[in-house]
Design brief:
This protein folds into four domains: 181 residues, 2-Layer Sandwich (Beta-Lactamase); 92 residues, Helicase, Ruva Protein, domain 3, CATH 1.10.8; 58 residues, Helix Hairpins (Orthogonal Bundle), CATH 1.10.287; 154 residues, 2-Layer Sandwich (Heat Shock Protein 90), CATH 3.30.565. It is built from 15 helices and twelve strands. It is rod-shaped, with a radius of gyration of 65 Å.
């Protein structure tokens, strides 16, 4: 993964984690503040309601007693109450509409009169009457059990957060009257503790994002882009292109030092490459000269190995010539015999001349010259040079090369190829009971395929891997230099051809050559 991608992921992760932690902290603190505020508001509402309830209790007791005394003119000992008149008197009191505390905080209210057999309720205003559902909860049994038996008054908070107050009027004044009222929830001043936090977030989050973007942009310009340019330069250097120096060498930081060092390195590599190209060209020329020298050396070594055969080829005709010259020196020799000896001597001289010409044709007296060569010519030259070796070891040489088959190459070097292959084949089959060498050729598309096969001992896989290496030989003593097949490989490949070998122990060897064919065939 690239550094640019890693840096991007790192900034995103840091940003997400930071914002998430801030958001969690803010929401948690806000929730805790809301819970505390809710508890504080409930406590405040309950306390305020209880204070107001006590004030309502006193005022309602006063109003009720006023109604009882003013409307009926009775005392506490009187038992004759006109409940309808009391209800009208209570509903006519301006207290329910004019007192600001009543209109703001009083939610529901009714008065209760207890008797030995029944309980009556008196509501001063329709807006203060309990609903049917609420009336079911405040039943007569509840009033008889709670209101009639309470000493003074009691307060509790219902399921909706309302403060409920119930009790009895002063028993010294009116022992059979009570009251039940409920107050609206007293709300304190509205306050949201998260508002300031939200304002802080509204400022800090964009600022943090701007800071992260600035850091990323700075990192990109100062580090990531130079690193990308350095990577591209390294790839160019690996492909051999030293022409584009890094543009950050004038910076005074580490990036500038790296760019300057890489530019110096590219200059040195360019100089070294130029110098190496010159050295390689010179070495190539020296190698070609050395290779040519090796070809000459191998030819001379091959000629040395067949020198005995050439000597036999020359000695036999020379013996015939000497014998013919002695006979021609006799004065009593008949003319017909004299003519016969002259023919024998002339034939022997021609044989010697032919042998010498074949040796000279195989020697490198001139630079290689590419031409169209009939394939039988270099094969015949090589066969003539190893003829004595073939006869001496009773080796059968079978040729299956059609006439008129031409290849493109240098005739002397082609002769060198077949001479080395035939010498190696002769050495390979020297110990066989029925030694045999087969040379065959056939046209194959734009190439000529040639096979030189023997029935000798063959080669192992390990030997085959090194058979074309220079100076590698399996022959003992002075029989081999290790140059023959290496030179053959170089000549064949130099002619644009290919050479391969198939061999196995005790199954002989087969060398296959593919040489360029004359296009007109």
């Amino acid at each position: 993964m690239s550094i640019r991608r890693r840096a991007t992921i790192l900034f995103l992760v840091v940003n997400v984690i930071t914002v998430s932690l801030i958001a969690v902290s803010v929401f948690r603190e806000t929730e805790e503040s809301r819970n505390r505020l809710k508890a504080d508001r409930a406590a405040f509402a309950k306390g305020t309601a209880e204070v107001l309830a006590n004030s309502f209790k006193v005022s309602m007791e006063i109003e009720l007693l006023r109604v009882l005394k003013k409307s009926l003119g009775v005392t506490a000992e009187d038992e004759g109450y006109d409940e309808f008149a009391i209800a009208l008197a209570l509903s006519d009191l301006p207290y329910w509409d004019e007192d600001p505390l009543v209109t703001k905080y009083l939610d529901r209210v009714f008065f209760v009169r207890f008797s030995e057999t029944d309980i009556n309720r008196f509501n001063p205003r329709p807006r203060l009457v309990l609903s049917a559902e609420e009336s079911a909860k405040v039943s007569k049994s509840f009033l008889r059990q709670r209101v009639s038996k309470v000493d003074g008054f009691e307060t509790f908070v219902d399921d909706h957060g309302h403060v409920v107050v119930y009790g009895k009027v002063d028993p010294d004044v009116s022992p059979d009257w009570g009251y039940y009222f409920r107050m609206n929830l007293v709300e304190p001043v509205s306050f949201d503790p998260s508002e300031s936090v939200r304002r802080i977030l509204a400022i800090s989050v964009p600022a943090m994002l701007l800071l992260l973007f600035t850091l990323y942009y700075s990192l990109k310009r100062l580090v990531l882009e130079p690193l990308s340019a350095t990577e591209r330069a390294a790839l160019r250097i690996s492909s051999g292109d030293y022409s584009q120096p890094l543009p950050y060498a004038d910076r005074l930081d580490e990036i500038g030092s790296v760019a300057k060092a890489m530019n110096i390195m590219m200059g040195q590599l360019e100089e070294y490459r130029t110098r190496m190209q010159g050295n390689i060209s010179a070495a190539t020329e020296r190698f070609k000269r050395a290779e040519q020298h090796l070809v000459v050396s191998e030819r001379l070594a091959a000629m040395g190995r067949i020198a005995a055969g050439i000597a036999h080829e020359i000695n036999n005709p020379l013996g015939g010539i000497l014998n013919a010259l002695r006979r021609l020196g006799s004065s009593d020799l008949p003319e017909d015999r004299r003519a016969k000896y002259r023919d024998v001597a002339e034939d022997a001289v021609r044989r010697i001349q032919t042998t010498v010409q074949r040796v000279l044709a195989t020697s490198p007296r001139h630079a290689p010259q590419v031409e169209t060569v009939e394939l039988l010519w270099p094969i015949d030259q090589a066969r003539a040079l190893v003829a004595h070796k073939l006869r001496e070891n009773r080796i059968e040489l079978a040729l299956d090369v059609p006439e008129g088959l031409h290849v493109v190459g240098d005739r002397n070097e082609l002769s060198q190829i077949f001479l080395n292959l035939l010498i190696n084949a002769c050495d390979a089959v020297g110990d066989e009971k029925e030694p045999r060498i087969e040379v065959s050729a056939a046209a194959l598309g734009s190439e000529v395929e040639i096979r030189v096969k023997d029935n000798g001992k063959g080669m192992t896989d390990e030997v085959k891997e090194h058979i074309f290496d220079l100076f590698f030989t399996t022959k003992t003593g002075n029989k081999g230099t290790g140059l023959g097949l290496g030179i053959v490989h170089n000549i064949v490949t130099g002619h644009g051809g290919r050479i391969s070998v198939e061999s196995a122990p005790e199954k002989g060897s087969s060398f296959q050559l593919n040489l360029p064919r004359r296009r007109s065939e």
